[in-house]
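Quick one before lunch.
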Amino acid sequence: MVQRVRKAVLPVAGLGTRFLPATKAMPKEMLTVVDRPLIQYAVEECLAAGIDEFVFVTGRNKGAIEDHFDSAYELEATLQQRGKAPELKQARDSALKPGNSVFTRQQQPLGLGHAVWCARPWIGDEPFAVLLPDELTISSPTCTAQLVAAHEKTGGSVIAVMEVPRDQTRSYGIAAVKAEKDGLAEMTGLVEKPKPEDAPSTLAWIGRCVLEAGVFEYLARHETGAGGEIQLTDAMARMIGKRPFHAMRYTGRRYDCGNRMGFLEANVAIALHRSDTAADTRALLDRLLKG
Ligand code: G1P
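Model of the 1-O-phosphono-alpha-D-glucopyranose complex:
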């Protein structure tokens, strides 16, 4: 029997230097796409996949994330007094279940692998999801729900991948896979940020996966890889061949909000897709493009 995925690790310790000055006093995960912070998209993606226990691996200056998922007593009381029901619902909906989330600090920026390793006491011995919140994915079912379904079929670990242009392999973990069947392929390797000429394929890991707790054994070695950091992909690569490990081709929409243009694209694209903002956004863009 495959164990159900109940928990997610959200690494949110990064400094967000690509978004300065916006991120000088505010976590990059609180940057807003249309009307909600990036981190809320990742949390809602998990909730839609039946995952409602969260380990946020934070760092200094990330307090706003913790506050966002708490209840905001003064704000809620004021909205209630003023009879602002829809706004009250918006404020309340982002609160997480009592006791279902922990915030732990990665004290040193030693890499994504180290950040995930910091979550080990709360994960224990069960499979868990990892979501990098600066990757925003939109689909129904959600990317994480698709990974959970794939994990129920294959057991072991599953990562979500998408095709990228070969000249971009340096930005991603790149998967080597066997023949694909129904969007799933057994993995034979995973390389962190290879040069285009060394990349085993153009299938990039898009920051979503379900991992077996066994990954902590490899992360505990604290071996450094690309960029002198402890890489999650290196630990995953070590599991391949020993435990079931699959790549799932994700076919939904994905925006890399880790850079300015991707973030801008996410804002425009999501505003164009949402029924409450689509028509106004289209009209706005028409007006702006006509100059
Ligand atoms: C991280 C991972 C990389 C993955 C990417 C997805 O890199 O190390 O394997 O493909 O996220 O966004 P980062 O973007 O943090 O440099």
